[in-house]
Amino acid sequence: MIEVRNLTKHYEFGNVTALKRINLTFEDGRFYVIAGASGSGKTTLLNILSGIDGPTSGEVLVDGVRIHSLKEKELRRYRLENFGIVFQFFYLVPYLTGLENVLLPMKYSKKVENPETRARELLKLVNAEHLANKLPEHMSGGEMQRVAIARALANRPRYLFADEPTANLDWENKVRIWELLRKVNREEGVTVIAATHERDFFRFADVVITLRDGEVHEVKNNPQKA
Fold first, then answer.
1. How many CB atoms lie within 10 A of CB 168?
2. How far apart (Å, rounded) are the C-alpha atoms in residues 86 and 84?
């Protein structure tokens, strides 16, 4: 479980307070969507939850561990073994194949005993087996995002964070990726926390958290989930 307590984030540059006194709880095994307009604080919240950025005040506890109190090396290790992150712009290594990109996180962790078997299973899970030997330059945007999701799952994370994961895709691929995230949530048991401003995809969530001007505006169980 992730607990967020009195979380505030202030940026001195521009004198902007991106998050204001956020209090939230994320239960294991559920699918959360963080919604809100551009500038509402979605990305900032995801970055702090995933340990990429730190709060100005307040804390994030993962099963009681105050992750931002960890030393930098400890936090990197904790993130590697517990969190998976899917970015808007994919960030695949261009000179590595699909299979090699998925294998990459496992090279820095001893959590997985048979990395190649795991990587191929994940490519199958995300319907990307045919991309195992392809370089990113030969993949479509939707294909690159599927490989990126497989990579994020490599070390069997408990939490998968996705920041506007379909913003750069066409409609058909948007739907496929959201369906895939829901599949991962159900079949891998991963807690998914995804940010989007697109209301069409709220239906995939168990819970929709709406931010407005850096504050929690609404937390709503979703009766129309897919």
1. 15
2. 7
Q: How far is CA 153 from the centre of its chain?
A: 10
**199's tokens:** 């209301």
Q: Report the C-alpha dihedral over residues 35, 38, 40, 45, rounded to 10 degrees.
A: 70
Q: What is the spatial distance between Cα 44 and Cα 214, in angstroms, rounded to a whole number?
A: 9
- For residue 85, the surrounding DSSP H or E stretch is strand 83-86
What is the set of domains in the chain, with CATH numbers? 2-221 (3.40.50.300)
Distance of CA 141 to the CA centre of its chain: 17
What's residue 225's pLDDT?
Answer: 65
- Residue 140, token pair as written in the block: 């479509």
For 3-60, the pLDDT digits (tens) are 999 999 999 887 889 999 999 999 999 999 999 988 899 999 999 999 999 999 999 9
Name the pLDDT band for 92 (thresholds 50, 70, 90): very high
CA atoms of 217 and 15, how far apart (whole Å): 22
Q: Please work out, in degrees rounded to the nearest 5, the angle formed at the alpha carbon of residue 215 by the alpha carbons of 212 and 221.
A: 80
* Tokens read off for 20: 């204001």
The Cα–Cα gap between 63 and 86 comes to 22
d(CA 37, CA 59): 24
- Which among 210, 152, 156 is positioned nearest to 32, based on CA atoms? 210
* CB of 151 closer than 8 Å to CB of 139: no
Q: Are 157 and 190 in contact (CB under 8 A)?
A: yes
